[in-house]
Amino acid sequence: MTTQAPAQAGFDRRYDVQGLEAIDVAILGTFPHVREDDPVAYPGEPMEILISTDEFSPVCPWSGLPDFGRLEIRYLPREKCVELKSLKYYLTSYRFVGIFHEHATRRVLADLVRLLDPLSMEIRCDYGVRGGINTVCTVRYVAPDRSGV
């Protein structure tokens, strides 16, 4: 059996990728949603927090080439908020992880729900166009005690 060389050098190239164990969940930190030393009661509905970045870049599991996405995290905190520096380190840990767009979006939701126990959360990632196709993934979570709200 003979193997045929690729039509052009480099078309068979693949960069090594890391597995899911490289996602650094332990780096994530939190702080209280309400300051204990603030005597003012906050009126109205729970605060909605929106965090966004254009720098989310996991890699393609097949080629190892980077995928770039605009990631949005929208949530209603229960008791804790995610600390932004730790979130940046967490998201950066995806940089060499070979993962499909859909799986990356769901994984971010799962990790943050476990960390924060929010009232609700939505993760949306608009990945850059690849091969003329744009992928936008959106996943949502509503806490069981809020599902009737």
Automatic annotation (TrEMBL):
Main localization, broad class: cytoplasm
Residues the record marks as active site: 60 (thioimide intermediate), 67 (proton donor)
GO CC annotation, single: cytoplasm
Pfam families on file: QueF (PF14489)
Compartment(s) of residence: Cytoplasm
SUPFAM superfamilies with a match to the protein in the record: Tetrahydrobiopterin biosynthesis enzymes-like
Domain of life: Bacteria
Residue spans crossing the bilayer: none
Binding-site residues, substrate: 82-84, 101-102
EC number: 1.7.1.13
InterPro entries attached to this UniProt entry: GTP-CH-I_C/QueF (IPR043133), NADPH_dep_7-cyano-7-deazaG_red (IPR050084), QueF (IPR029500), QueF_type1 (IPR016856)
UniProt entry keywords in alphabetical sequence: Cytoplasm, NADP, Oxidoreductase, Queuosine biosynthesis
Gene3D superfamilies noted in UniProt: 3.30.1130.10
Catalytic activities: 7-aminomethyl-7-carbaguanine + 2 NADP(+) = 7-cyano-7-carbaguanine + 2 NADPH + 3 H(+)
Annotated pathway: tRNA modification; tRNA-queuosine biosynthesis
GO molecular function terms attached to this record: preQ1 synthase activity
UniProt record, GO biological process: tRNA queuosine(34) biosynthetic process
Record-stated family: Belongs to the GTP cyclohydrolase I family. QueF type 1 subfamily.
HAMAP family in the cross-refs: QueF_type1
Entry function: Catalyzes the NADPH-dependent reduction of 7-cyano-7-deazaguanine (preQ0) to 7-aminomethyl-7-deazaguanine (preQ1).
NCBIfam families recorded: QueF-II
Name the UniProt record assigns to this protein: NADPH-dependent 7-cyano-7-deazaguanine reductase
Source organism (scientific name): Deinococcus metallilatus
